[in-house]
Amino acid sequence: MTIEHGTAFDQRAYRDALGHFASGVTIISGIDEDGPIGFTCQSFYSVSMDPPLISFSVMTNSTTYPRIRDTGRFAVNVLSHHQHTVSSQFARKGSDKWTGIEWSPTREGNPVIHDSLMWLDCDIWAEHEAGDHHIVIGKVNEMSPSEWHRHEPLLFFKGAYRHLRDLAS
User: Fold this and answer.
1) Among 9, 49, 90, 117, which residue's beta carbon has the most beta carbons within 10 A?
2) What are phi and psi of 25, to 5 degrees?
3) Residue 168 pLDDT more than 70?
């Protein structure tokens, strides 16, 4: 499909096309004076090895991210294959996302969700506006030890949660 300048853009077709890219699922978490905060995020990736930088994207109308931004730091929790309910819980607006969630703080105090695949603790390095999203770059200060990585990842593909074994067939 060719996208012509000035014509109506089919956002549903665009979303469906991007749905063919399997992605991991993360929870971006932080803590402020009101307690732990977080949201589900699929747009996460490595940016640089030296310095160690990662990035995630978040909607500009997020009500959670501004609270994380104000602290200047966050953790990335990469979810394990069995944590689809955790992902769904953190994707909902207007609920206590932390109900029933076990977590431990990093050295900086950011929440690390128990049984996640791996985690990174970061300071906000930069932020850029990009359409209806913010692109946030974080400098990694601490990460999960290698023995933490004992599960397979939770994936999102074609609008549904998947496991590696689902994609192999």
Assistant:
1) 90
2) -125, 130
3) no
Q: 129 Cβ partners below 8 Å, 6+ apart?
A: 60, 135
Distance between CA atoms of 67 and 26, rounded to whole angstroms? 18
How far is it, in rounded angstroms, from Cα 40 to Cα 56?
11
Query: What average pLDDT does the segment 107-130 reach?
Result: 97
Write down all domains in the chain, each with its CATH number in brackets. Answer: 23-168 (2.30.110.10)
CA dist 14 to 1, 83, 160, Å? 10, 27, 16
Q: Is the pLDDT score of 75 beyond 70?
A: yes
What single-letter amino acid sits at 118?
M
Q: Is residue 136's pLDDT more than 70?
A: yes
Question: Do 117 and 78 contact (CB within 8 A), yes or no?
Answer: yes
- For 90, list phi and psi in degrees, rounded to 5: -80, -15
Task: Read off the pTM.
Answer: 0.89
Q: Edge-to-edge strands of the sheet including 35-41?
A: 35-41, 26-32, 73-78, 118-130, 133-143, 53-59, 44-48
Cα(108)–Cα(36) distance, integer angstroms: 13
Length of the chain counted residue by residue: 169
- Per the prediction, the chain carries an average pLDDT of 90
Tokens linked to 44: 């996460």
